[in-house]
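Hey everyone, long-time lurker, first post.

I ran two proteins through the pipeline my lab uses and got sequence/structure pairs for each. Pasting them in order. The first:
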Amino acid sequence: MSQKKFKLIKKDCVKWMEDNKNEVDCIITSPPYNINVKYGEYDDSIPRKEYLIWMDKVAKAMKENIKLNGQIFLNVGYTNIDPFIAMDVAQVFRKHFILQNQFTWVKHIAVKDTGHGQYKPITSKRFISITTENVFHFTKKGDVEIDRIAIGQRNKTHPIWPELYSEGRHLATCRRSVAKKMKFKNYLDVKSNASEEQKKLFFNEVQKRLLLKPYEPDKKKCIGNAWYIPYTPTSKLSKMIGVQEDVNSRKNSRANHPATFPPALPEKCIKLSGIKKGSVVYDPFVGTGTTVIEAVRLGMIGIGTDVSEDFINFSKKRLANEEVLDAENSAETDKNDIKKKTNLSQMSLLVS
């Protein structure tokens, strides 16, 4: 993780974006939600009208900052008292962009009486606990090609529903395609009404197609727009970023940032975007640096801005620790490689 691959800048994001037009391939960020929580030096309790005017300025700056095929992944949450925050922000961005995709970040879900993930429980006679947030995927024209399979999966073992892509279905699809090409309704129509010569031609063509495009048992499919991404527990996050003191401290693990997202969220966004290695990924509200870290890990150039010096300094410490960990892992890998080569050499001597 080279210093040349990331920048962390203490600067107002609108000013930075206005100074760097047509520079960024992908923006991944989560702005303050204006729900009166403490974001370092930022006032998160301004009147809604002022907040949305500011969001409009941010959206305009983003439009100038990203390239023609640039993408924006905008994570916005809400509260039970004010459930329209995310929708209001999305409506502001709608004036400048096309909403190409919309995702639901699922932090916790209960399946068959078993809970998965974490959330902030509440005690209320009116409201339920919030376990999801929105991720809006904006582009300039709505026609940017993405890589759905980069975050795809292959479910082979579902106990109830048959796999949508099975060997039988693959064969049936192939037969149906060939039948229609030969002007038959389907495979059954071929069996019932085709001449022997037509049947021979049909089966030969099916075999050719199966050779050209065989069944792939490990073929991945699109996972859809609901992403289950649990929060990283505070103690685990502390250890991941090299905290030596109180690992259960929010200050040590998150610099007291009130709304961090887990690494898997920007990771999914970057992979789905389909951008090439070396592309520029930018987080206008970089906070604790998670987007930049994941960008660099995936071979991108990561840039982050924030008005809080505390958050910038914390992000720099995280990035520095990531470099140390990478160096240690690299050294350990080299050591193991040398050990394997030594063992192989000794075996060769014994054999000879």
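...and the second, right after it:
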Amino acid sequence: MWSHDGILCFCDTLKNAVRLTFPKGAQMKDPHKLLNTRLDSKTVRAIDFHEGDTINEAALQALILEAVGLNKSQANEPSFYESPHLS
């Protein structure tokens, strides 16, 4: 798991792939179409890397930096449990 002001992404090993999952992936722009799985989720998006895949490192770095930006922009927002909805 990698984090910066919250979870950025985490990695799972699958039978035929390595999956990099972004918990806030549905909020992220993906102009290079790296996110290729969990596309039906309302929040999460992921990338499955298969043996022999070519990785667009610049696009992956941009995606990770966008995740950092999302976490930073939401870092000052109160959590659900701190929100006035529970008052």
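Reply from user beta_strand_b:
Welcome! Quick read of the second one: The helical segments are 57-74. The radius of gyration is 15 Å.
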